[in-house]
Amino acid sequence: MRYLALVFALACGGGKPAVESPRPPPATPVAVSSQCASAYADYEQRWRTARSADLVEVGFDAASVDEVLEIEVALLPNKSDLAKLRGQYTAIAVFLPDSPWPLALDAADAAIEQCGEEAPHP
Question: Where are the domains of the chain?
Answer without folding.
Answer: 34-122
